[in-house]
């Protein structure tokens, strides 16, 4: 139970966020470790991303059999996924089902935004403040704030003058929106737009899409899961989960056929055609060097561009939809249902704002160059301040009062995406510099929660009251992450992976590209060696650095 010091309730652990990570943290730390855990959640319900992203067509683009918890067999046997890629309402129901099953709601305070967290060096504890006036103190602070949880809204001139409704896909009204008979404008053509445009087009009177950068998207081939398939999956979950744990992305994927130029073109082409018909992300991994060789990438990119031209009737519209600004896969690949076909509809118009940007909003709509487009509603599908946005909105004050925003002024720096030098006793679940962005995020969350639980167990057994990433360990890890990225085509794209979608955000590649399996091995090894790269202290004892061996 919590105790009270100077009227501030004290816990073993305070967690920020009640998405999938927050839910699992409560269960793991409370039920397996016997810790007193308190979670603060900004939303009026649990589920994180799936609580907020309720736009039409929102669904997961990793297969539901994998995009779900693996740690509890009862849960995976009891829960029935209905579609290959579950829609948002079903994923939110699942999150709530898991929360009830694990009885975690009592640990979660909803409608409470953490505003500030201050580390106290004398006691090795964090004191957390919230917008409701509730405070809490804890030895460990864990952020479970998600990678894509802060919507990014460009500052268009005269936005307030627009007389109609404005919606953001990442903060969609819970009661839904009826676009019947409406003229709707959509800004953005990333994954959220690509999922929602086909459905909004079916409802709206007219839909106008403002595209700055054409995005690569491949067919999701979504479909209902049959009863026989469901039973077969449940029977083989043990093996499936084990194989997924050993996969780089946390899901099983088709293997490449070989490197560009080393395999007969007939075979490459045949495999691209096969994967286009139904393996989602598999399209970009037909060639083993797709993300390292521009020649290989051009081949795959052109395959998709040819498909666009086959699907879209109007050659001028097809030309606009062809992505040419980045190598396929270096910005997040989208999976779609009827995206390109939607541009064959009479009521859908595509406006390129690549060369002539949106000039301003007006009372009637949006002005681009000499043209004013009139709307009843405008949808911003403009993405997120990814990976760092949610953390930088909280005033974290670490050693000597240094803030996280200051520490990250030149870009996010972290050790393993799990801890930040200068911020002791603070864990970041799926923080910048881990592979999560490039993986099935639930697999990454499970790994982080379990690793953190093991580390806390270790510290408690050793009487350690304070841990902190060492400057050397962090610097080497940051370099290693950047070096790995530099060996690929990823940094050539102006992507949210690089922070490039938010004006003024420092450009740092935010993910470890070595794969979840290798990352998991590395984390396990440094734990087995006594938590290499972390400094430890025990109630007043001086910090002692562990020997460090981070590298390629
Ligand atoms: O956001 P985005 P998203 N004027 O950043 C455009 C995950 N996700 O919400 O590319 C005009 O991809 C911007 O243009 P540009 C997934 O990881 C997952 O769609 O910067 N346009 C771009 O087209 C995904 O990657 C699922 O030139 C402007 C768009 O807005 C991530 O979330 C579903 C503009 C933003 O695209 C983010 O996706 C959905 C401006 N001033 C999302 N500013 C799943 O299925 C921005 N844009 C699990």
Which helices and strands, and how do they pair?
Blueprint: E1 3-5, E2 8-16, H1 20-32, E3 37-40, H2 49-52, H3 73-78, H4 88-101, E4 108-109, E5 114-120, E6 125-130, E7 135-143, E8 165-168, E9 183-187, H5 191-203, E10 206-211, E11 217-219, H6 227-245, H7 265-276, H8 294-311, H9 315-321, E12 334-336, H10 339-342, E13 348-352, E14 358-361, E15 365-368, E16 371-374, E17 377-380, H11 389-392, E18 395-397, H12 404-407, E19 426-428, H13 441-462, E20 466-469, H14 471-486, H15 516-528, E21 534-537, E22 544-545
Parallel strand pairs: 2-3, 2-7, 3-4, 5-18, 7-19, 8-17, 9-10, 9-17, 10-13, 11-12
Antiparallel strand pairs: 1-2, 5-6, 6-7, 14-15, 15-16, 20-21, 21-22
Helix pairs in contact: 1-13, 8-9, 13-15
Bound molecules: 3-acetylpyridine adenine dinucleotide (N01).
